[in-house]
Amino acid sequence: MSLPDSRRLSHFLDLMTERGWDRLLFYGNAWRKDFFRYLLNVNFSGPWAIASLDRSGEIRAILSDPWDAELLPDVGRAVLPAAGFPAGSVGDAFGRAGFSLQPGLQPRSGRRLKPPLQAKACSTQPSVAVAGLELMDAGLVESLGSDPVSATAEIEEMRRVKSPEEIECLRRAAALADRGYEYFAQIIEPGMAEYELVAEVEGYLKSNGAEDNFMLIASGGTEVKGMRPPTQRQFKRGDQVTTELTPQIGGYYAQICRTLVLGEPSAEQRQAFAIFSEARGAAEDLLKPGVDIADVARAQNDVFREHGYGEYTGSKYTRVRGHNLGLHPDETPYVLEDVHYTVKPGMAIIAHPNTYLPLSGYMVFGDTLLVTETGCEPLNRAERKLFHPEGQFLKK
Amino acid sequence: VKRGLIAWDKAELPPEVFESRLARARQRLAERDLPALVVYSDLGKSNYARFYSNFMPYFNRALLVIPRTEEDKPFLLCGLSPRVYPWIESVTILEEIIASPNLAAKLLEICAQRGWRRLGFLDPEGLPYDLHRVITAAIQIEPVPHEGDDTERAMHRRARQMAWEGLIAEIRPSLEPILDYELVGNLERRLRRAGAEDLVILVTNGDTAPAPAKGQTLREGFSVLVALEYGGHWAKAGRYHGAAGGAVAHGARLEVLSGVLPYQICDAPPMGAALATTMELRDGEHRYFFCDTQWTTDGGSEPL
Questions:
Q1: What is the pLDDT along chain B (304 residues), one digit of tens a residue?
Q2: Residues of B with CB below 8 A from A195's CB?
Q3: Nearest CA-CA distance, residue B87 and chain A, Å
Q4: For the residues of chain B, what is the DSSP string, one character each?
Q5: What stretches of A12-132 adopt beta strand conformation (E)?
Q6: Interface touch B3/A136, C-beta < 8 Å
Q7: Nearest alpha carbon to residue A117 among A132, A131, A127
Q8: A216 contacts in B (CB within 8 Å)?
Q9: Angle, vertex CA B150, rays to CA B148 and CA B154, nearest 5
Q10: Is B44 in contact with A319 (Cβ distance < 8 A)?
Q11: Rounded to two decimals, what is the model's pTM?
């Protein structure tokens, strides 16, 4: 189990003091474990979990699966496995973990907690804040027995700047993404179905220690407008195959986007890739501390505009020109011309000019970039090219 | 994350099954004089929207809206890009998908257009807080119960069969000590090739409860539990390697697999549900786990 380091803990406690929060909760569920794991980096497997930090620095947890409790031997914990959340039940569970949600008020069974009697002195200051409040079941929020405020924005901002330990996880995840893509390009062959290839890559990534992986794929020609989960479509010679791999190591996701042609790329595909390559390079050249993230999007889009493909940089053909990475594979800020955010050292961002072009159909290309003091460092080492494996299958 | 094959085999789940489910939902709406039923869906809560439409998200959130009047087809408010709507339409009964970067705002806009002041919700308490707060500030929402059907039983049976075939193939008696990552990778490869949509695999060397792989070598007496999703239907299976010898029963846990969550621990399972039972055996300090999925009936449970 990973407890937060003293620096991160100190940041949390400073934030709590500044905002007048007596307790800071970190919520996670099966889809979004990220906030929970920012305080307690444990890969829980139950439906949800809440980690709690109080102003003394004490950490406790409420879990929905008793097996998860065994992953947390060093912190006070309680388990609330049953379906539904009767009023006050979560407050009671906190009580079983050895603390109440409101200082000085002990929760009682089957009763929703009332506002604390001694809270008058700070009645304008909420005492319980939740990172991930928006994701919580409404019934779970109700059963907290308090009136929490959201700490999501504040904690998201903290999460954007990575510690050396987090960066090490990202480096390992990026290295695995590289190897995963190498494997992808090695085993793909005509006749294989998209979902079979994804199964092979998932097996490879898990065999090499990935906790999870976010992956999309598409194959075909100029009719392809975007990526999606794998289908039963079988690859054909001449297909353009796009994918993004996002393996997770130690809780942290790194991503790689690459495009491959099953055969010799056409002149149009090469022309398209040259544009993508120029756009990706423009983002990497610009990304450094102090830059507005909107300009990183603009730098990529300007390349398309200069080549006469500006209309393909909008939401009809593409989603974002990149995004932040970390404990969630799709963190904010998004790299978009209308999103303004000043880049900081220690951020991990994928810049990917992924979009549809009539030359090639949907194409993708991008690397995870670590923002340094003076610029950025690509964490991926995979070749930056339009892949076109000429090995095994073409000789068959 | 769901990243396996998300498909719709109409021989396995004919459109008439969905028509029947929608008809029953409309009947429940009529009984409560509600104009529409709303079903929330995300990666961790996709069972109910799948039941009524076969929609399963691979990311993001969505609201399935089922109007009470039969002439109004169900539609989806979707946070995903319109570029993937043709794919969604190809694997669901849905003909109308409405781009909704802000789900609550879009739902309220539609309510205003149609004059809906009350809405039925499946599991309203399970709605994410941000949506619940905005929606309930503007309109009245009322809980409508979910009713499963027997068609699900065959799908859970298929999921269970796939999980067991994978476990039997990969946990052979002759299996040498193996890194847990490698065993999990082998299961992922085999089961996703067989058509699994999603997998959660837990392992233990007998010294802890089952947990995600952590890079340990699995020795004789280890246990593996597989939760497998096929066509939106979950099953759990688990076995230990080797013989449990003189181990004795230590406890059991029950999980409903056909509720709002993929699996939820329960004390008293409802009738007509997929139910996973995990038995724990102990031989001294060593813990063995065995798991299987059954179907609950009024007389108890039956094998799938």
A1: 677 899 999 999 999 999 999 999 999 999 999 999 999 999 999 999 999 999 999 999 999 999 999 999 999 999 998 999 999 999 999 999 999 999 999 999 999 999 999 999 999 999 999 999 999 999 999 999 999 999 999 999 999 999 999 999 999 988 899 999 999 999 999 999 999 999 999 999 999 999 999 999 999 999 999 999 999 999 999 999 988 888 999 999 999 999 999 999 998 888 999 999 999 999 999 999 999 999 999 888 899 9
A2: 4-5, 192-193, 195
A3: 8
A4: ---S-----TTTS-HHHHHHHHHHHHHHHHHHT-SEEEEEE-TTS-HHHHHHH----SSS-EEEEEESSTTS--EEEESS-GGGHHHHHHHSS-S-EEE-SSHHHHHHHHHHHHT--EEEESSGGGSBHHHHHHHHHHSEEEE------THHHHHHHHHHHHHHHHHHHHS-TTPPPEEHHHHHHHHHHHHHHTT-SEEEEEEE-SSSS-B---SPEE-TT-EEEEEEEETTEEEEEEEESS--TT-EEEEEEEEESSSSSS-EEESSPPSSSEEEEEEEEEETTEEEEEEEEEEEETTEEEE-
A5: 23-29, 48-54, 59-63, 76-79, 128-131
A6: no
A7: A127
A8: 3, 58
A9: 120
A10: no
A11: 0.94
Q: Check CB contact under 8 Å for B87 and A47.
A: no
**In sequence order, which residues have a C-beta less than 8 Å from that of residue B25 and are 6 or more positions away?**
B37, B52, B66, B144
Q: Cβ of A358: how many Cβ atoms within 10 Å?
A: 12
CA of B227: which chain A residue's CA is closest?
Answer: A45
Sign of CA dihedral B173, B178, B183, B186: negative
ipTM: 0.96
Q: Which residues of A touch B182 (CB under 8 A)?
A: 207
One-letter amino acid of A137: D
Report residue A139 as tokens: 């019934």
Q: What is the DSSP letter of A115?
A: P
